[in-house]
Specification:
The chain has 259 residues and is α+β, with helices and mostly antiparallel strands. It is built from 4 helices and 12 strands; from the N terminus they run ααβββαβββββββββα. The termini are far apart.
């Protein structure tokens, strides 16, 4: 009899449990929901890095266009490539590429993404910064803004190890197409001897990426899946497609810590 009762009670509990659980909604996401969630995250990261990126501009009134990018790393400093810091001074003073030139103290003219008007670069104003520090060997420069600029975000340096295969977000102004977003993956981490930029051979640790970049991306950032800065765009090779080199986060840390 006791065995019969136990069997009946067990059956009732099983039925009650099944009825209870069948009414509960699954908390797991479908494939479509996972894709949507990832897309939403990518859009948010793109907006953040867009607002953390400046366009350095050059040209006469009504013909201004971006020639390089830079990344806000705090409220008053922009990180960019050393060769970008030289361009304006060399252009204004007609200094040949083969001649040594130190741009520290030079003016750098820029705008934020917030400053676009009807999707166009403003032609009647820009913000002003001064080249504060430069390291030609590692192709890095720091520009201090002397303007109280429009809204922008700041980029945090990545703390995680950078590994081949991880996603990369990139932002820059290729051929003057301002605030162009591309993405790819980290292709390799290299200790590389790069091209001669100005009068200096680049010898530095780099992140090789597969994200499409071109002239105008220089000085812009590469960001990881969390939207944190892993490199500053330095050079590309024309011998194969989608091979770009960004100055590695480790070199950036050394550069900033030596201030």
């Amino acid at each position: 009899m006791n065995a019969y009762k136990s069997m009946v009670i067990s059956l009732i509990m099983l039925l009650v449990g099944a009825g209870c659980c069948s009414g509960m909604k699954s908390t797991s996401l479908s494939t479509a929901e996972l894709v949507l969630s990832e897309d939403v995250k990518n859009v948010q990261i793109t907006k953040h890095i867009q607002d953390a990126t400046v366009a350095f501009i050059i040209g006469p009134p009504r013909e201004k266009s971006p020639y390089c990018a830079g990344v806000w790393i705090d409220e008053s400093h922009i990180l960019t490539a050393a060769h970008c810091a030289e361009i304006l001074g060399r252009t204004v003073f007609s200094i040949d590429e083969e001649k040594e030139y130190n741009p520290v103290g030079d003016i750098a003219v820029f705008v934020n993404h917030e400053d676009l008007r009807n999707g166009e670069i403003p032609q009647d104003f820009s913000w002003v910064g001064v080249v504060e520090k430069i390291d030609k060997e590692h192709d890095l420069a720091l520009v201090k803004s002397i303007s109280n600029t429009s809204y922008h975000t700041t980029a945090l340096l990545a703390t995680k190890n950078i590994q081949a295969g991880e996603m990369v977000h990139a932002m820059g102004h290729p051929i003057g197409l301002f605030w162009t977003y591309t993405r790819g993956v980290v292709a390799a981490i290299r200790n590389s001897t790069g091209p001669i930029l100005g009068d200096q051979l680049i010898q530095t640790k780099v992140v090789q990426v597969s994200a499409p970049i071109w002239v105008g991306n220089s000085g812009g950032g590469a960001f990881n899946a969390d939207g944190h800065l892993i490199g500053i765009c330095s050079w590309i090779t024309l011998r194969a497609p989608s091979i770009g080199f960004f100055i590695h986060r480790d070199e950036i840390k050394k550069f900033l810590n030596s201030r």
